[in-house]
Input
Amino acid sequence: MPQTENVKDIHNCTVEELEVLVTELGEKKFRAKQIFGWLAKGVESFYEMHNVPMRLLVSLADRGWYAGLPEAAQVQRSADGTVKCLFRFTDGAEIESVFMKYEYGNSICISSQVGCRMGCTFCASTMDGLERNLSGGEMLAQVLAMRKLTGEDIGHVVIMGMGEPFDNYDEVIRFIRLINDRDGYDLGLRNITVSTCGVIPGIRKFAEDAPQVNLAVSLHAPNQELRERTMPAARKYGYDELMDACREYTEKTGRRITFEYALIDGVNDSEECAKELAGRVMGWLTHVNLIPLNEVSGRDYRKVQPENARRFREVLERRGVAVTVRRTLGSDIDAACGQLRRKKDHKQI
Ligand code: SAH
Output
């Protein structure tokens, strides 16, 4: 059973794994589903699991199993209802999660790694590299802890926080299985979105393993040369092959793919860029999500001028490309990923 360097986190166990565990401890299999159900309710201790025999709960605790949720080390609340939290795990690792209110319901953006090694030059999460992966259980724990913190139901999960999900592929799949389980949180697969910076083998595998989960790909440029300038991972995963993998994904799954495009002033926001991008994505099942850059201290990039964003959008629309401009939530707090963690450590930002 995969474990983090952390403690034995019971949130990381699937029902089947819990069944093995409880039967090894001489108990009936159905106890596993009871424990799994309690965890999804958000309990933080074995002793809250009232219908489970105390001897079993004591055995689990004696064997080092832990049911706690991460500590909310810092919380920022925005006037628009957005809540950003710096969660701290028992080993001291800190990650960010963001709760957002949308018309279609409440959503959480969770992290998949502590830090990131992809090196995108506009992103705060990657400035100190990768500290460690998160387990599927630690991804689930972010949802449970945020629901507790806000007192609100959460019906959508996007894996767009710190980290590159496809650099931690197996644990992301584990998380999806855990949160989708009807004996637990029971979140629909179509209510989950995974965002990748373009890890091609991950995209190919994902089409097989999780065809109902939404996929977003961070493009941020209309061609290889420009993409390489801001996204070092593009050197390994070239533009043409990436587009081929995306197209195969849509053909195999029948699902629309979302391309994220952060508009950076004077870098990728020209009319020529918009035309070139349209040429790349026209005519197949795609959707372009334009994101005005979140300015990160310590980085030189500036947010797109509003008139340039409008022009960029119009060029795409005129060519029949489905396009939206992401609504900026939490602009009065440190909404750009990785910023809160850096500030907290009093690092240079
Ligand atoms: N590693 C994954 C998911 C995490 S980042 C990925 O790259 O997709 C989620 C999205 O936010 C990505 O599209 C990422 O490129 C974008 N992003 C990162 N820093 C940003 C910033 N300062 N402003 C706007 N978008 C940013």
